[in-house]
Amino acid sequence: MTTGQQPAHLIIEQFGTVRRITINNPRKKNAINMQAYGDLTDQLNAADRDDSVSVVVLMGFGDFYSSGNDISGILTSNQSVEERLKTSNGKLFNMVKAFYSFSKLLIGVVNGPAIGIAATTVILCDVLYMVDTAYFYTPFSALGLCAE
Q1: Phi, psi at residue 139, to the nearest 5°?
Q2: pLDDT band at residue 4, thresholds of 50, 70 and 90?
Q3: Name one GO cellular component term (predicted).
Q4: What separation in angstroms does the CA of 82 have from each of 52, 68, 95, 126?
Q5: Cβ distance 91 to 142 under 8 Å?
Q6: Cα–Cα distance between 104 and 58 in angstroms, integer?
Q7: How far is CA 7 from CA 18, 70, 105, 111, in A?
Q8: CATH number of the domain located at residue range(s) 10-143 in this protein
Q9: What pLDDT is recorded for position 1?
Q10: CA 58 to CA 105: how far, in whole Å?
Q11: Band of the pLDDT at 2, cuts 50, 70, 90?
Q12: Three-state DSSP class for 39?
C-alpha cells in the first residue's frame, strides 16, 4: 500500500510492519538530487519514530540501485559556491546520520549498480540482498580522493 503524499523521487509503501522506500528517478538511473537527500533523510527518521514500522527496505526502481549524486541542480543553483557546498554537505551529513542512527532493521536491496554516494550509504544497511549483476563503484577513488 502506498502511503500519503509521495516525495518527488521516492516511492513509499507500507506492507504490514514493513516500509519500503524506493529511489525512483529512472530517467537518471535513480540519481539522487539534493531534494531526494532531504526526503530520504526525512523518510528514514519518520520510519524510525513510527511504532507501526519494524523493518525498512531500501531499493532502487528498475535495473539500477542508484547512479549516485545528481549534481545538475547544484550546477544551476543561484547560490554562491560556498552556500551550495554548505547546503549539500549538510544534507549529505544528515542523510548518512539517518542511516547509521536508524534503530530498526534496515535492509538494502541492491537491484543493480550502486555508484558513488549510493554505494557508500547502502552498505550502512544491516542486511544487503543483491542481484548477480549488482556492483559497487566509487569513481572518486580512481582519482585518489575519498569523496564518497
Answers
A1: -60, -30
A2: low
A3: peroxisome
A4: 41, 22, 20, 35
A5: no
A6: 13
A7: 18, 16, 22, 21
A8: 3.90.226.10
A9: 58
A10: 11
A11: low
A12: helix
Check: CB of residue 12 under 8 Å from CB of residue 21: yes
Asked whether the beta carbons of 9 and 35 are under 8 A apart, the reply is: yes
Cell of 4: 500519503
Q: Please choose, from the candidates 120, 12, 104, the residue with its C-alpha nearest in 3D space to the C-alpha of residue 58.
A: 12
Q: Which three cell numbers stand for residue 134?
A: 549488482
Average pLDDT of the residues in 77-106: 89
Structural element, H or E, at residue 28: none
Q: pLDDT digit string (tens) for 47-59?
A: 999 999 999 999 9
Residue 50 grid coordinates: 513510527
Amino acid identity, position 135: Y
Q: Cell 534496515 sits at which residue?
A: 106
Residues in the chain, overall count: 148
